[in-house]
Specification:
The complex is a heterotrimer of chains A (353), B (265) and C (290). Chain A is an alpha/beta fold and 353 residues long. Chain A has 15 helices and 10 strands. In chain A, strands 1, 2, 3, 4, 5, 6, 7, 8, 9 and 10 form a 10-stranded mixed beta sheet that branches. In chain A, strand 1 (43-47), helix 4 (50-68) and strand 2 (72-76) form a beta-alpha-beta unit. In chain A, helix 4 (50-68) packs antiparallel against helix 13, helix 6 crosses helix 15 (333-352) and helix 8 crosses helix 9 (200-210). Classes of the chains: A alpha/beta (353), B mainly alpha (265), C mainly alpha (290).
Chain lengths: 353, 265, 290
């Protein structure tokens, strides 16, 4: 791995090129390590802002600091390009990265992450799947949401969704190739257990059929809720936790747990982090059953440790999809790690034509 | 005006429709800002000031982000004005070979897509170890907004009567004196409007800031985007309404106080 | 308008100017060279050399269907947005040019008001206004008594509306400045000679404002060509633009060579359009002189 890294990362030549042009002089007075002013001993975790950060803080980082004395600073806006630049220039601002699926594996290939220390982190016995560089800590479910007042008889599985005669209605799908190809195959009648490796041609053919009914291919998650409530779409592919929080806010919205796609959110440690050991400790903590229980109750996530599901309160458990349900699909990240870039391109071409 | 109102009613109607088009989205946001839900809802089911309370709560960080954007906007606009206004003066009052090319180079950030500028500056400042510094952020914004200062100042300079400058020169004033005592006072209007426009562009800018800003010190737009993976917070509607209200009140007051009737933009 | 003045000043003055005015332009020139041109050269370099050096990204662009579609989208959305912005901007600029400076300043603040509202909430506001169950369609249905629905959002129209909303102020400025620089005496003379307002507008005012119109149109289309947030929020599936692809290759695929190559092509297109406009103008001017 490390051998390929050096050829992939263009640091020395790029740096020399710029310095050669004498820019060091201009910059000298301002050069400051970006992390100098962050709390000296705290781990820096880059994650999303807003309500999500509140959940992470409450369920994971604050109790972690109380227990271990290791501080965690949450900063907003995970962005692999920034991670890449930090690693290639050696100017690390972050220690821990909170990322999802395919692009995360892509980043691991680029050599952006440390290998997980399996003597600290138990990577076996998981609902999801750990890779050499990324540890699952949160599993959320994608499925169909609808307005129960407007749509008393909604499609509750993807197969029903694709049955336009029985369930006519405007659909909202995502502009993400992963998830969407799975939906297409399930809609076309593929048995969840035979899903992988994906029959890509069949998936695109199925998508071609449903295309006219898709009122909006949604790029940003908030629109999966707002377009449903503003009556622009009838069936929205969205996420259980997102629906639960909208519902708690009094919106007329329901989520079908009959058939869902489970997606995994990962933690990775940035290559060269000076706090590697503490970061591994944090990751190990985040996946602990009691922490997973707290996270699940705050976020409506499926615990990554199989046993933890039984610890969750019945009210929350009722809203969670059952990972053992044969209709449930666990998104296979290994498949996407190899195929994400090429399939994404084909998917974009599909959207454009 | 006379021409429009007296003789052509259709253009007048169209003009006002365009004003309505420009303002309506901001107006729709106002009622949303008085809702109590955590979701964007129009019209709100319950009314209250919760969103304003949250916008002003220091713990939520919106105030700090807004303050940061203000400081950044002022810094970047100052840099842009300090370099842009003299440059416009120099360009408009001289002829030299390659002038067109130089003008084009100075204007070119307008014509480079923001994502390109953002990527370019990000790689550049990352190599210099400067990403995340206010200096890098202010310089990046200055690059993006200076061309607009150039445009408005150049057009303001076109309206100035050059005979006054010539007279001053004949009487022995240096070029610097002319610039500060003759040109600058007469340009006040264009510089102010150009400056406001530039400030707003900086205040609204998200793509460059997303790359350059330190992740624990987001600007206001970056903070707004940082939760897009989960929500578009209705707090944004309160912030927007608040800013719109301040601007309208401020400009009405300014219009009443100001007595200068200088022409130009 | 400026050339007679220069001639009267004489050659020595021009010489002096050449040296003296340089100091006014120098700081900005240096700044742009260091903080804009140099980074941009870095992008050009990355588009060819990222680890190893090759032209694969450009070859890929030239042969990929995805890129051709995105290119066509970028050009057509940029063109239409520029056109719409200029037309709307003209009405506003004309209105502004016929009022007192003090009033104008107030109205300019109004024109810039949309900038205070983030596109994130604005996109929701547009859904409320333009959606199938939105204010306009509901009003139309109430008035006509039918269930007519005009699709105005999540399609090309939505992108144009959203972008024009943002770009109109960019078009207003140059048009307004060229309207204000016109000599009012010309219009008055035409009026005294009995020309009708409509004729005065088309034969005097509009031709004289053309440079501003062209500048405003170029600026708004080129800026429009570089945006990607609005198309993602308000557009349909077919409205993906080159800037969306740059964003994707930078942040998700981490393929900076491809991202840089698309970026370089985007800048080249802008350059091409600008030189074309400059060439047309020069031809027009020399044609008028002959």
């Amino acid at each position: 791995m490390s051998k390929t890294n050096t050829t992939l990362l263009p640091t020395p030549s790029r740096r020399r090129f710029l310095e050669g042009l004498g820019t060091g002089i201009l910059a000298a007075p301002f050069v400051l390590s970006a992390r100098r002013t962050l709390a000296a001993d705290a781990l820096v975790l880059v994650t999303w802002g807003g309500a999500y950060a509140d959940v992470i803080r409450k369920a994971i980082t604050t109790p972690f600091t109380e227990e271990t004395g290791i501080g965690v600073t949450l900063v907003s806006g995970p962005d692999l390009s920034k991670a890449k630049a930090q690693v290639t220039t050696g100017n690390l601002e972050w220690d821990l990265y909170d990322g999802s699926g395919g692009s995360m594996h892509n980043a691991a290939k680029e050599g952006l992450f440390e290998e997980l220390d399996t003597s600290v982190i138990d990577t076996s016995n998981l609902v999801g799947e750990a890779t050499a560089h990324a540890m699952p800590f949160l599993i959320y479910a994608g499925g169909m949401a609808y307005d129960p007042e407007r749509t008393p008889n909604p499609p509750r599985t993807f197969k029903q969704l694709f049955d336009g005669d029985a369930y006519p209605g405007r659909i909202g799908l995502r502009t993400r190739v992963s998830e969407t190809l799975e939906i297409a195959l399930l809609g076309d009648g593929v048995d969840p257990k035979d899903l992988y490796p994906l029959d890509v041609d069949r998936a695109f053919a199925a998508l071609e059929r449903i295309k006219p009914r898709v009122a909006k291919w949604i790029a940003q998650t908030p629109q999966t809720i707002s377009l449903l409530t503003s009556n622009e779409i009838d069936y929205s592919y969205t996420y259980n936790g997102r629906v639960a929080s909208a519902k708690a806010d009094g919106l007329n919205i329901e989520f079908s747990t009959d058939q869902t796609i489970l997606m995994t959110q990962y933690y990775s440690v940035l290559k060269g982090s000076p706090k590697r050991a503490q970061a591994m400790e944090y990751i190990s903590y985040a996946a602990r059953p009691d922490v997973q229980k707290r996270l699940s109750e705050a976020y409506y996530s499926v615990p990554v440790r199989p046993g933890a599901l039984d610890m969750v309160t019945p009210e929350v458990k009722a809203l969670l999809p059952d990972p053992k349900d044969p209709r449930t699909v666990l998104l296979k990240e290994a498949f996407w790690a190899d195929n994400f870039i090429t399939l994404d391109r084909r998917f974009k071409e599909f959207l454009l034509t | 005006m006379r021409f429009l109102t007296k003789n052509l009613s259709l253009p007048v109607i169209v003009t006002w429709l365009i004003y309505v088009f420009l303002l309506v989205p901001s107006l729709v946001v106002i009622p949303i800002s008085f809702g109590t839900s955590n979701e964007l809802v129009f019209p709100p089911q319950d009314w209250g000031l919760d969103l304003y309370r949250r916008a002003l709560d220091p713990a939520e960080g919106w105030l700090a982000a807004a303050g940061r954007s203000m400081v950044l906007g002022i810094l970047a606009t100052t840099i842009a004005l300090l370099m842009g206004v003299p440059a416009a003066y120099g360009l408009s009052r001289s002829r030299f070979p390659g002038q067109k090319a130089l003008t084009f180079m100075l204007m070119s950030p307008i014509f480079a897509p923001t994502i390109v500028v953002a990527l370019a500056l990000y790689l550049y400042f990352a190599t210099l170890g400067m990403t995340g510094t206010m200096a890098a952020l202010a310089m990046s914004h200055a690059v993006v907004i200076t061309p607009f200062i150039l445009v408005t100042t150049l057009s303001g300079l076109k309206h100035l009567d050059r005979n006054i400058e010539n007279a001053a020169m004949v009487m022995g004033a240096t070029r610097l004196q002319i610039f500060f005592h003759v040109v600058l006072p007469a340009l006040k209007g264009s510089v102010l409007t150009g400056g406001l426009f530039a400030f707003l562009l900086s205040f609204d800018e998200v793509i460059v800031s997303w790359f350059i800003a330190r992740s624990d010190q987001p600007t206001l737009p970056v903070k707004m985007y940082s939760s897009i993976q989960w929500e578009i917070s209705p707090v944004l509607s309160a912030i927007s309404t608040f800013l719109v209200a301040i601007t309208v009140v401020g400009s009405v007051v300014a219009a009443f106080i100001s007595s200068a009737e200088t022409d130009g933009i | 308008m400026t050339t007679p003045m220069l001639r009267r000043d004489g050659r020595t003055r021009t010489m002096l100017n050449r040296l003296g005015f340089g100091s006014f332009v120098l700081p900005l020139t240096l700044f742009m060279l260091l903080v804009f041109c140099l980074p941009l050269i870095g992008v050009v370099r990355t588009s060819i050399c990222d680890g190893d050096c090759s032209l694969v990204a450009y070859v890929d662009f030239a042969t990929g269907k995805l890129f051709h579609r995105a290119l066509i989208n970028t050009l057509s959305i940029g063109f239409v947005t520029g056109l719409v912005s200029v037309i709307c901007g003209y009405f506003v600029a004309y209105h502004l040019s016929r009022m007192t400076a003090r009033r104008r300043r107030f109205f300019l603040v109004l024109v810039m008001l949309p900038f205070w509202t983030s596109i994130l909430v604005k996109s929701f506001a547009f859904t409320v206004i333009l959606g199938t169950d939105g204010i306009i369609n509901n009003a139309l249905q109430a008035v006509t008594g039918t269930d007519i629905v005009i699709p105005m959002i999540f399609n090309r129209a939505g992108v144009i509306i959203g972008m024009a909303h943002w770009l109109i102020p960019f078009a207003v400025f140059p048009i307004l400045s060229s309207l204000l620089s016109q000599d009012k005496a010309l219009r008055d003379a035409a009026e005294i000679m009995g020309a009708r307002p409509w004729d005065i507008f088309w034969k005097v005012t509009f031709p004289l404002s053309l440079p501003g119109v062209i500048a405003g149109g170029l600026m708004s289309s080129v800026i429009g060509m570089g945006s990607f947030v609005t198309p993602a929020l308000l557009g349909g599936r077919r409205d993906m633009m080159m800037a969306n692809l740059v964003d994707f290759y930078v942040r998700e695929a981490l393929d900076w060579r491809m991202a840089s190559a698309i970026a370089v092509i985007l800048v080249l297109i802008a350059l091409l359009i600008l030189s074309l406009a400059a060439w047309l103008r020069q031809r027009q001017e020399s044609g008028a002189a002959a």
